[in-house]
């Protein structure tokens, strides 16, 4: 009996010790979450205020929030947010517009973080926590390896098939045209009417003004701009405006 | 010895059982979180797309997301988001504007979910999950018990002290004037230049158009509108626009 009891005691104690060890790890984890909560709140409020354009013109993501931005931009939440935006775009273009069939019904898309994802580049360059190095960024663009954003790829073709003429307006420079076209085609985009890139004259212009100028050019040519899809407020603001603008998420960088 | 061992065994077993019980509760919780993740993503993407105005014109919060909205609107995250917006407003008005000192430098505030919080009402009415009952909502407004949003209260006075004239433009009806004034004063707001409410003529007008009309009136009177703070995009859109608009969070309702 004594032996049996002793054995049971040892096993029971070992089990207790193991469960308690897990329990302690767990408590530590909870406690860390407790400590981390206010930083998480802080960084999430930074991200949220960037998205609604209360925070503008930052040149780098605050160092303490780089981890938060990385986590978001590589999360299922980022995908869910983009998907939901695509669904709303679909809802709009399915019922919005009486197309005249004169080839003047237009739709505009941004490129980076809209048609293509530059996350693979930012993944190697601090997720917005490092100031953008144009030379290295443009070298990466020239590789033409940016993946498509799946939900935008899908609506791009649906919008085109509905009879809208598609215009791509990007702040990428004119020198990047062939790399950009290669990349777009490689991942499945085709059939746009015009790819508008920044000419030498436009390079010193604020992107917001450049975007307005390009839209003005379309309006002057008789186009009706039914929608814009982009990740930057500078693609929507100013006149002439589109009937609807759809904002895709991006907390890695801001273009004024 | 046998008694001692038996006692130790009993205590040890009781302890083990108790820890295991907690452990099981915890595992259930984790598992629930796992199952809940995609609903959480879904509702968060709904909320996010409402905030950036991709989703418009909903009359009720989707039933499956009412819990998520309630959680957010009563969370430290909602407070952090509002606080961060207030900090950005402060940053802007501290350096933005060369005031002429002619009494024509204006700033506009919304009322609900901007100066005052209607969360106590929505807390009793499904956090946006029930269609708004104007009669019961207006009866609640007449109680004049809406609390201030602390961060807005602070910047309200700072903006006023800087020499801006403050205009409150609300879609509350003219009949609610005295209850609104009572409520505002009770929680610490005073010194605004004009409280603009919806007259009988304006009640059938779309709120967005009504808001534009009120801004046009100010511009016609010679005011320069430096900023608007509101929780609805319909308070910012259309012409004339303010130099800057600041969006406060609100996922309980949408005003077109």
What can you see in these coordinates?
The structure is a homodimer of 256-residue chains. By secondary structure, the first copy, chain A, is an alpha/beta fold. Chain A has two domains: 1-30; 76-247, Rossmann fold. Chain A has helices at residues 2-51, 66-73, 76-95, 119-124, 134-141, 150-161, 177-186, 207-220; strands at residues 105-109, 165-173, 194-198, 224-230, 244-247. Chain A has a five-stranded parallel beta sheet with strand order 3-2-1-4-5, with helices on both faces. In chain A, strand 2 (165-173), helix 7 and strand 3 (194-198) form a beta-alpha-beta unit. In chain A, helix 3 packs parallel to helix 6. The radius of gyration of chain A is 25 Å and the shape is globular. Chains A and B meet through helix 1 and helix 3 of A and helix 1 and helix 3 of B.
List keywords for this structure.
homodimer; alpha/beta; Rossmann fold; five-stranded parallel sheet; 5 strands; 50% helix
């Amino acid at each position: 009996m004594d032996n049996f009891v002793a054995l049971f005691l040892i096993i029971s104690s070992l089990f207790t010790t193991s469960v308690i060890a897990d329990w302690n790890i767990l408590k530590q984890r909870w406690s860390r979450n407790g400590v981390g909560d206010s930083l998480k709140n802080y960084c999430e409020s930074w991200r949220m205020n960037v998205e609604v354009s209360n925070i503008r013109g930052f040149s780098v993501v605050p160092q303490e929030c780089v981890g938060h931005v990385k986590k978001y931009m590589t999360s299922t939440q980022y995908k869910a947010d983009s998907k939901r935006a695509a669904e709303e775009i679909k809802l709009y273009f399915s019922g919005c517009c009486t197309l005249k069939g004169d080839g003047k019904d237009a739709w505009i898309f941004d490129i980076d973080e809209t048609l293509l994802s530059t996350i693979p580049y930012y993944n190697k360059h601090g997720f917005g926590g490092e100031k953008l190095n144009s030379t290295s960024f443009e070298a990466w663009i020239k590789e033409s390896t940016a993946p498509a954003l799946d939900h935008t790829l899908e609506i791009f073709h649906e919008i085109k098939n509905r009879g809208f003429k598609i215009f791509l307006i990007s702040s990428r420079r004119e020198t990047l045209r062939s790399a950009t076209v290669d990349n777009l085609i490689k991942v499945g985009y085709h059939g746009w009417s015009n790819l508008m890139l920044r000419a030498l004259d436009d390079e010193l212009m604020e992107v917001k003004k450049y975007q307005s100028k390009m839209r003005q050019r379309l309006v002057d040519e008789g186009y009706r701009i039914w929608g814009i899809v982009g990740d930057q407020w500078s693609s929507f603001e100013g006149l002439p405006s589109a009937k609807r603008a759809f904002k895709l998420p991006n907390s890695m960088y801001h273009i004024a």
